[in-house]
Structure formats: structure tokens, C-alpha cells
Design goal:
With 70 residues, this protein is an all-alpha fold. The chain is 79% helix and 0% strand.
């Protein structure tokens, strides 16, 4: 292989890696920790305390990134 071809392949791989890294970072930002939400919902269902329900609902709304209108 010649040097120009190796450089071209290198830059292509670097570009693909960068794109994948950005995609993974975006997915991480948009992901929800389902285990955390699951535990909150279990706590919600296990108590009859209205104040605890209100607080847990706020936490769920924050975790799921609800807007203030929703």
C-alpha cells in the first residue's frame, strides 16, 4: 500500500470513530436510567402517603424529562 492510501484510510477511520463517539454521547444524554425510575415507581406503589406520592411523581417527571406543560 502506498502512503497516500494509508493516510486516506486513517482519516476515514478517525472520522467514523468521531461520529460514533458523538452518537454514543448523544444517546447517553438522552437515555433514562430505567432501574432508577423502576425503583421510584415501586416506592410510589408501596406507600399510601400522599406527600410521598407527590414527591415521587416530581422525581419521575424530572427523570423522564417532562416539560412544565406536560
Amino acid at each position: 500500500m502506498d502512503l497516500a492510501r494509508l493516510k486516506s484510510e486513517h482519516y476515514k477511520l478517525v472520522s467514523e470513530h468521531s461520529e460514533r463517539t458523538q452518537q454514543m454521547q448523544a444517546e447517553m444524554v438522552n437515555s433514562v436510567n430505567y432501574e432508577y425510575v423502576k425503583n421510584i415507581l415501586i416506592s410510589y406503589f408501596m406507600t399510601n402517603d400522599v406527600k410521598v406520592h407527590e414527591n415521587l411523581l416530581r422525581v419521575v417527571f424530572l427523570a423522564l424529562k417532562f416539560s412544565t406543560e406536560e
